[in-house]
Amino acid sequence: MQASPSSTLSARYLCVRRHSLDLAAPLSAEDQCVQAMPDASPTKWHLAHTSWFFEALVLGPHAPGYRPHDERFARLFNSYYESLGPRHPRPQRGMLTRPSLAEVLSYRAAVDAAMLDFIGAADADSLAAAAPWVELGLQHEQQHQELLLTDALALLALNPLAPALRAGAPPAIAAAEAGWVAHPGGEVMIGHDGNGFAFDNETPRHRVTLQPFEAGHRLVTNAEYQAFVDDGGYRRPSLWLSDGWAMVQAQGWAGPAYWRDGGIAFGLHGEAPREASAPVLHLSFYEAAAYAEWAGARLPTEFEWEAAAALSAPPAQCFGLAWQWTRSAYLPYPAFKAPAGAVGEYNGKFMVGQIVLRGSSLATPPGHARRSYRNFFPPAARWQFSGLRLARDV
């Protein structure tokens, strides 16, 4: 017997929401309250914010008679939606000792109960109207699942005890062969093709003309990046963009974030020897660009990355290991229009001063990656699981 649309949506909802709790489970209440830096958020805040998202964009507009679990929470857990009211300052999220973790978990449970009641009781028309917003909320939560891990890692990395988020040794990563994958260039289609979910910044699908190029068959490895470091890469201003060199000087960068002495790196499994053939992680755009300059290559544009990933024999390691910096500014596609209402604040207003990353990382939830996905961060950001793939002209 085929499952009904409401039961299918309920099952998906529960699966995604439970995964967030599973990711947070190894962290103590103390771990979940603290904020590592202004760009990160406490685990507790992620758990609450994703619940507020369902209240604000699904239950409030679509569930008749719904009243928020706690009216005060909107101010605490709204992230950046100006149209939905005032917000607690982002750099001070780590000061929110109240509500407690137990209260946040109760909040999640109340929102989950209300969501499941709404989905189960909605008639066909109401469910059809709400389903895209439920899916947006789930995709949004998956984004925060990755942020939960990266933000928790940034926090634990500051602890002299080097506590691990996950038990045991990190999983081995299969080595991939070096080399180049050729693309003939020409006219290619870029952007989401309309099958399945996509964020608004992946559209509209449009034509782009590319020159012939080659993309690296695999990601740059720890060993290769170590050679850059050993060759004085962080001491040679000629390799760096001006703003990047200024960051090197101001921040004292001498290697990727979380690299430690003696060939050790700090990660989700705590301190462990760096695997030479594994992709280098936790690079800023500036570091990725400097390495590419040192290697006599460059970073791919986001359009080259997507075109290479669409080849019948694409490069290796496109997904599941590291987000890959591109040489593309995060800008709207031709004819892009932000949707009306609060959802229009989701992506469009950030299309300035940021760089596109493609692929997905070891922290990206299963099923959340696709060729057209456009991640974006400021060029100095390096607490994400970000690495690089080279490209070159032919």
Topology:
Layout: H1 5-24, H2 29-33, H3 43-62, H4 73-77, H5 101-121, H6 124-156, E1 180-183, E2 186-190, E3 206-210, E4 213-216, H7 222-230, H8 242-251, E5 259-260, E6 264-267, E7 270-273, H9 285-294, H10 302-309, E8 322-329, E9 355-360, E10 375-377, E11 386-387, E12 391-393
Parallel strand pairs: 8-11
Antiparallel strand pairs: 1-4, 2-3, 4-12, 5-6, 6-7, 8-9, 9-10
Helix pairs in contact: 1-5, 1-6, 3-5, 3-6
Question: Which short descriptors sum up this protein?
Answer:
globular; single chain; 10 helices; four-stranded mixed sheet
What does this structure look like?
By secondary structure, the chain is an alpha+beta fold. It is built from 10 helices and 12 strands. The chain has a 4-stranded mixed β-sheet. A 3-stranded antiparallel β-sheet has the order 1-4-12, covered by helices on one side. A 3-stranded antiparallel β-sheet has the order 5-6-7, with no helix packed on it. A hairpin with a 2-residue loop joins β6 (264-267) and β7. α3 (43-62) runs parallel beside α5 and α3 runs antiparallel to α6. The longest helix has 33 residues, at 124-156. The termini are far apart.
